[in-house]
Amino acid sequence: MSSIDVPLKSGRFPTAKFGQTQRKDKWWLEPLLVFLGYALFIVYANYAIINYNCGDRYCFEVPGTSYLSPMFSPLLTREVPTWWPSFAPFFGTMLILWAPLGFRFTCYYYRGAYYKAWWADPISCAVGEPRKSYWGERKWPLLIQNAHRYFLYFAILFIFILAYDAWKGLWFDGPNGPGTQFGIGVGSLVMIVNPILLGMYTFGCHSFRHLVGGRKDVLSTSPVRKSCYDCVSGLNRKHMLWAWISMFYVGFVDLYIRLCAMHIWTDWRIL
Ligand code: FES
Q: Most buried of the four, 35, 57, 147, 238, by CB within 10 Å?
Protein backbone atom coordinates (compact mmCIF):
# COMPACT_ATOMS: atom_id res chain seq x y z
CA MET A 1 0.00 0.00 0.00
CA SER A 2 1.51 3.33 -1.05
CA SER A 3 1.78 6.17 1.41
CA ILE A 4 2.87 9.80 1.49
CA ASP A 5 4.45 11.83 4.24
CA VAL A 6 2.49 14.93 5.21
CA PRO A 7 4.60 17.27 7.31
CA LEU A 8 2.61 18.49 10.32
CA LYS A 9 3.39 21.50 12.42
CA SER A 10 3.54 20.91 16.14
CA GLY A 11 0.71 22.15 18.34
CA ARG A 12 -3.03 21.72 18.16
CA PHE A 13 -3.76 24.33 15.50
CA PRO A 14 -1.92 25.16 12.28
CA THR A 15 0.19 28.27 12.40
CA ALA A 16 -0.53 29.40 8.83
CA LYS A 17 -1.89 32.91 8.38
CA PHE A 18 -5.45 33.42 7.20
CA GLY A 19 -5.75 32.25 3.59
CA GLN A 20 -2.22 30.84 3.51
CA THR A 21 -1.96 27.45 1.84
CA GLN A 22 0.12 25.25 -0.40
CA ARG A 23 -2.91 24.17 -2.36
CA LYS A 24 -2.72 24.95 -6.06
CA ASP A 25 -6.34 24.28 -6.96
CA LYS A 26 -9.17 26.85 -6.94
CA TRP A 27 -10.09 26.08 -3.33
CA TRP A 28 -11.71 29.52 -2.95
CA LEU A 29 -14.25 28.95 -5.72
CA GLU A 30 -16.71 26.78 -3.78
CA PRO A 31 -16.94 29.03 -0.69
CA LEU A 32 -17.30 32.03 -2.99
CA LEU A 33 -20.18 30.45 -4.92
CA VAL A 34 -21.84 29.35 -1.67
CA PHE A 35 -21.49 32.88 -0.29
CA LEU A 36 -23.03 34.41 -3.41
CA GLY A 37 -25.81 31.80 -3.56
CA TYR A 38 -26.89 32.36 0.03
CA ALA A 39 -26.55 36.14 -0.29
CA LEU A 40 -28.80 36.10 -3.35
CA PHE A 41 -31.47 34.09 -1.58
CA ILE A 42 -31.29 36.16 1.63
CA VAL A 43 -31.61 39.44 -0.29
CA TYR A 44 -34.58 38.14 -2.29
CA ALA A 45 -36.29 36.61 0.77
CA ASN A 46 -35.99 39.88 2.65
CA TYR A 47 -37.38 41.79 -0.31
CA ALA A 48 -40.29 39.34 -0.53
CA ILE A 49 -41.05 39.52 3.18
CA ILE A 50 -40.78 43.31 3.48
CA ASN A 51 -43.05 43.75 0.46
CA TYR A 52 -45.65 41.50 2.02
CA ASN A 53 -48.47 44.03 2.03
CA CYS A 54 -47.26 46.28 -0.80
CA GLY A 55 -50.40 48.38 -0.65
CA ASP A 56 -52.67 45.45 -1.37
CA ARG A 57 -53.05 42.72 1.21
CA TYR A 58 -53.90 40.16 -1.45
CA CYS A 59 -50.99 40.86 -3.69
CA PHE A 60 -49.61 37.35 -3.39
CA GLU A 61 -52.76 35.66 -4.50
CA VAL A 62 -53.36 35.91 -8.20
CA PRO A 63 -56.94 37.03 -8.80
CA GLY A 64 -59.10 34.07 -9.80
CA THR A 65 -56.80 31.46 -8.24
CA SER A 66 -55.66 30.37 -4.83
CA TYR A 67 -51.92 30.46 -5.41
CA LEU A 68 -50.16 31.27 -2.18
CA SER A 69 -46.43 31.89 -2.00
CA PRO A 70 -44.60 29.22 0.06
CA MET A 71 -42.85 32.05 1.88
CA PHE A 72 -46.20 33.05 3.39
CA SER A 73 -47.74 29.67 4.03
CA PRO A 74 -49.55 28.91 6.22
CA LEU A 75 -51.03 32.39 6.22
CA LEU A 76 -51.77 32.69 9.94
CA THR A 77 -52.72 36.35 9.92
CA ARG A 78 -52.75 39.39 7.69
CA GLU A 79 -53.26 41.77 10.61
CA VAL A 80 -50.79 42.90 13.26
CA PRO A 81 -51.61 40.96 16.47
CA THR A 82 -52.65 43.14 19.40
CA TRP A 83 -49.84 41.71 21.53
CA TRP A 84 -47.16 42.75 19.01
CA PRO A 85 -45.00 45.67 20.28
CA SER A 86 -45.92 48.82 18.36
CA PHE A 87 -42.30 49.90 17.83
CA ALA A 88 -41.39 46.68 15.95
CA PRO A 89 -42.28 46.08 12.30
CA PHE A 90 -44.53 43.09 11.75
CA PHE A 91 -44.71 40.78 8.78
CA GLY A 92 -47.15 37.88 8.92
CA THR A 93 -44.56 35.43 7.70
CA MET A 94 -42.45 36.03 10.83
CA LEU A 95 -44.79 33.70 12.70
CA ILE A 96 -43.95 30.73 10.50
CA LEU A 97 -40.62 31.27 8.74
CA TRP A 98 -38.57 30.46 11.86
CA ALA A 99 -39.35 26.76 11.29
CA PRO A 100 -38.04 26.23 7.72
CA LEU A 101 -35.22 28.71 8.28
CA GLY A 102 -34.25 26.98 11.53
CA PHE A 103 -34.29 23.65 9.72
CA ARG A 104 -31.96 24.94 7.00
CA PHE A 105 -29.74 26.88 9.38
CA THR A 106 -29.10 23.77 11.48
CA CYS A 107 -28.82 21.34 8.53
CA TYR A 108 -25.53 19.44 8.59
CA TYR A 109 -24.79 20.29 4.98
CA TYR A 110 -25.64 23.98 5.36
CA ARG A 111 -23.50 24.25 8.46
CA GLY A 112 -20.47 22.92 6.66
CA ALA A 113 -21.12 25.27 3.75
CA TYR A 114 -21.84 28.53 5.54
CA TYR A 115 -19.18 28.01 8.20
CA LYS A 116 -16.71 28.05 5.34
CA ALA A 117 -18.34 30.66 3.12
CA TRP A 118 -19.56 33.18 5.71
CA TRP A 119 -17.31 32.67 8.72
CA ALA A 120 -14.21 31.24 7.06
CA ASP A 121 -14.12 28.70 9.87
CA PRO A 122 -12.28 27.05 8.19
CA ILE A 123 -12.48 28.67 4.78
CA SER A 124 -11.29 25.40 3.20
CA CYS A 125 -9.28 22.30 4.03
CA ALA A 126 -5.58 22.92 4.58
CA VAL A 127 -6.00 26.70 4.30
CA GLY A 128 -5.05 29.08 7.11
CA GLU A 129 -7.92 30.13 9.36
CA PRO A 130 -8.71 33.61 10.71
CA ARG A 131 -8.62 32.36 14.31
CA LYS A 132 -6.49 29.89 16.21
CA SER A 133 -9.07 28.46 18.57
CA TYR A 134 -11.94 26.05 18.14
CA TRP A 135 -15.25 27.37 19.37
CA GLY A 136 -17.33 24.26 18.80
CA GLU A 137 -21.11 24.15 19.04
CA ARG A 138 -21.39 23.85 22.80
CA LYS A 139 -22.21 27.49 23.53
CA TRP A 140 -24.94 29.87 22.45
CA PRO A 141 -25.87 30.79 19.82
CA LEU A 142 -24.48 27.67 18.13
CA LEU A 143 -26.05 25.42 20.73
CA ILE A 144 -29.20 25.81 18.60
CA GLN A 145 -27.58 23.48 16.05
CA ASN A 146 -28.45 20.58 18.35
CA ALA A 147 -32.14 21.28 17.78
CA HIS A 148 -31.97 20.12 14.17
CA ARG A 149 -33.95 16.95 14.78
CA TYR A 150 -36.79 19.02 16.29
CA PHE A 151 -36.83 21.43 13.35
CA LEU A 152 -37.13 18.32 11.19
CA TYR A 153 -40.59 17.57 12.62
CA PHE A 154 -41.77 21.07 11.67
CA ALA A 155 -40.19 20.76 8.22
CA ILE A 156 -42.14 17.56 7.57
CA LEU A 157 -45.33 19.31 8.64
CA PHE A 158 -44.57 22.13 6.18
CA ILE A 159 -44.35 19.66 3.31
CA PHE A 160 -47.95 18.61 3.97
CA ILE A 161 -49.04 22.25 4.28
CA LEU A 162 -47.39 23.16 0.98
CA ALA A 163 -48.86 20.06 -0.67
CA TYR A 164 -52.28 21.27 0.48
CA ASP A 165 -51.50 24.72 -1.01
CA ALA A 166 -50.62 22.99 -4.28
CA TRP A 167 -53.97 21.17 -4.17
CA LYS A 168 -55.74 24.48 -3.63
CA GLY A 169 -53.81 25.85 -6.61
CA LEU A 170 -55.83 23.45 -8.78
CA TRP A 171 -59.10 25.21 -7.94
CA PHE A 172 -60.04 28.42 -9.67
CA ASP A 173 -62.87 30.88 -9.46
CA GLY A 174 -65.89 29.47 -11.30
CA PRO A 175 -69.59 30.07 -11.82
CA ASN A 176 -70.31 28.67 -8.36
CA GLY A 177 -67.91 31.01 -6.61
CA PRO A 178 -64.23 31.36 -5.76
CA GLY A 179 -62.20 28.13 -5.81
CA THR A 180 -64.97 25.93 -7.18
CA GLN A 181 -63.69 25.21 -10.68
CA PHE A 182 -61.03 22.52 -11.14
CA GLY A 183 -58.27 23.48 -13.53
CA ILE A 184 -54.57 23.40 -14.15
CA GLY A 185 -52.51 26.49 -14.72
CA VAL A 186 -48.77 26.73 -15.18
CA GLY A 187 -48.77 28.08 -11.63
CA SER A 188 -50.52 24.91 -10.43
CA LEU A 189 -47.64 22.84 -11.80
CA VAL A 190 -45.10 25.25 -10.36
CA MET A 191 -46.71 24.79 -6.96
CA ILE A 192 -46.95 21.00 -7.21
CA VAL A 193 -43.23 20.66 -7.86
CA ASN A 194 -42.40 22.65 -4.73
CA PRO A 195 -43.36 20.14 -1.99
CA ILE A 196 -41.80 17.36 -4.08
CA LEU A 197 -38.42 19.11 -4.13
CA LEU A 198 -38.72 20.01 -0.47
CA GLY A 199 -39.49 16.36 0.24
CA MET A 200 -36.37 15.25 -1.61
CA TYR A 201 -34.37 17.56 0.63
CA THR A 202 -36.19 16.92 3.90
CA PHE A 203 -36.43 13.14 3.61
CA GLY A 204 -32.72 12.94 2.85
CA CYS A 205 -31.96 14.60 6.19
CA HIS A 206 -29.31 12.90 8.33
CA SER A 207 -31.61 13.11 11.35
CA PHE A 208 -34.43 11.48 9.41
CA ARG A 209 -32.04 8.75 8.33
CA HIS A 210 -31.22 8.13 11.95
CA LEU A 211 -34.91 8.13 12.80
CA VAL A 212 -35.94 5.55 10.21
CA GLY A 213 -33.11 3.11 10.78
CA GLY A 214 -29.78 4.56 11.77
CA ARG A 215 -30.45 4.14 15.47
CA LYS A 216 -30.91 0.36 15.10
CA ASP A 217 -27.91 -1.90 15.55
CA VAL A 218 -29.27 -4.60 13.22
CA LEU A 219 -31.36 -3.41 10.29
CA SER A 220 -31.50 -6.61 8.28
CA THR A 221 -34.13 -8.12 10.61
CA SER A 222 -36.59 -5.27 9.79
CA PRO A 223 -37.11 -5.39 6.01
CA VAL A 224 -39.55 -2.45 5.87
CA ARG A 225 -37.33 -0.28 7.99
CA LYS A 226 -34.32 -1.37 5.90
CA SER A 227 -36.11 -0.34 2.68
CA CYS A 228 -36.99 3.06 4.15
CA TYR A 229 -33.44 3.47 5.34
CA ASP A 230 -32.10 2.67 1.86
CA CYS A 231 -34.47 5.21 0.27
CA VAL A 232 -33.46 7.91 2.73
CA SER A 233 -29.81 7.01 2.19
CA GLY A 234 -30.29 7.42 -1.58
CA LEU A 235 -31.67 10.93 -1.06
CA ASN A 236 -29.03 11.65 1.52
CA ARG A 237 -26.25 11.01 -0.99
CA LYS A 238 -27.54 14.00 -3.02
CA HIS A 239 -28.45 16.07 0.01
CA MET A 240 -26.39 19.07 -1.09
CA LEU A 241 -28.03 19.09 -4.51
CA TRP A 242 -31.56 18.93 -3.09
CA ALA A 243 -30.67 21.60 -0.54
CA TRP A 244 -29.77 24.08 -3.27
CA ILE A 245 -32.49 23.17 -5.74
CA SER A 246 -35.29 23.23 -3.17
CA MET A 247 -34.10 26.53 -1.66
CA PHE A 248 -33.99 28.37 -4.97
CA TYR A 249 -37.20 26.77 -6.11
CA VAL A 250 -39.06 28.23 -3.11
CA GLY A 251 -37.78 31.65 -4.23
CA PHE A 252 -38.87 30.91 -7.79
CA VAL A 253 -42.41 29.96 -6.74
CA ASP A 254 -42.68 33.20 -4.79
CA LEU A 255 -41.35 35.13 -7.79
CA TYR A 256 -43.74 33.40 -10.17
CA ILE A 257 -46.79 34.20 -8.05
CA ARG A 258 -45.58 37.73 -7.38
CA LEU A 259 -45.06 38.52 -11.07
CA CYS A 260 -48.42 37.01 -11.98
CA ALA A 261 -50.10 39.05 -9.24
CA MET A 262 -48.38 42.17 -10.58
CA HIS A 263 -49.66 41.28 -14.09
CA ILE A 264 -46.11 41.13 -15.43
CA TRP A 265 -46.40 37.40 -16.15
CA THR A 266 -49.52 35.63 -17.34
CA ASP A 267 -50.52 32.39 -15.68
CA TRP A 268 -51.45 30.28 -18.72
CA ARG A 269 -54.31 27.87 -18.14
CA ILE A 270 -53.62 24.36 -19.42
CA LEU A 271 -57.01 22.94 -18.47
S1 FES B 1 -28.99 17.25 7.66
FE2 FES B 1 -29.65 18.61 6.12
S3 FES B 1 -31.74 18.72 6.50
FE4 FES B 1 -31.06 17.47 8.14
A: 35
